[in-house]
Amino acid sequence: MTTVPAQTSTPMGPLVGTQAAQTVANHAERPEKFSGLDFKRWQQKMLFYLTTLNLARFLTESPPAITDGDVQSISALEAWKHSEYLCRNYVLNGLVDALYNVHCKITTAKELWESFDKKYRTEDAGTKKFVVARFLDYKMVDTTTVLNQVQELQIILNDIHSEGMTLSETFQVAAMIEKLPPSWVDFKNYLKHKRKEMTVEDLVPIWWSMVNLPVGTKKKIDNYKGKGKGKGKVVDLGPKKGGVRKQVFQFKGKCYNCGEHGHRADKCKAPKQD
């Protein structure tokens, strides 16, 4: 009776190792090594990595209890220890050498994970103030494209959310508009006075429309609004005809009658020259 569990349990250790090795071979790159900064980000990446290896449970589990004389429970414990050993060393190998030397003496994956959480989460508390300061101090400039600066601002906003702080959609939109560079003041005022409530997604096509604008170039509000207004040519709007306004353009040439610029000879009010 006792020979059956012994035969079935013998290959459990090698089987677990083989499965883990196959999973690692098919897995993507490991998380970058933790150096003591951005703990929460590294912790999430490492947890995901261990989950794909079916080892994440050993970060919280204690060894299973065994029954004296029960060969199956003893074999299960040995298999558990093997997988727990892999989990612990995957975590340790995710540290830079200096931190590896500090934490390698911790004997279980659970104790190792808990020690990280206790030490580095406390240090991350100051990160919230740092991220908020980055957001408040961020100002767009005319020497860099607006799109790149908007993307940098979105990264800061994402960092704020990852720290557990929430900002309303309205606040985020208002902040992005307010931080536009000085040369975009007209466009900034145009967006600020729009009656329709805007979301961050509404701003995306606007930012993309700025991609091809040279650095330091002001945004032409009328182009965005679709009015097709020329550069100083339109001087008046004629009366409506059928609901459509007719644009009136000013003549820029020289009058042959009086020699002045801005009107034709047939429109000249000066006495006719012989």
Automatic annotation (TrEMBL):
Q: Which UniProt keywords apply?
A: Metal-binding, Zinc, Zinc-finger
InterPro entries, sorted: Znf_CCHC, Znf_CCHC_sf
Q: Residue ranges of the CCHC-type domain? A: 254-269
Q: Which GO terms describe its molecular function?
A: nucleic acid binding; zinc ion binding
Signal peptide start-end = none
Q: Report what the protein is called.
A: CCHC-type domain-containing protein
Q: Which organism is it from?
A: Mikania micrantha (bitter vine)
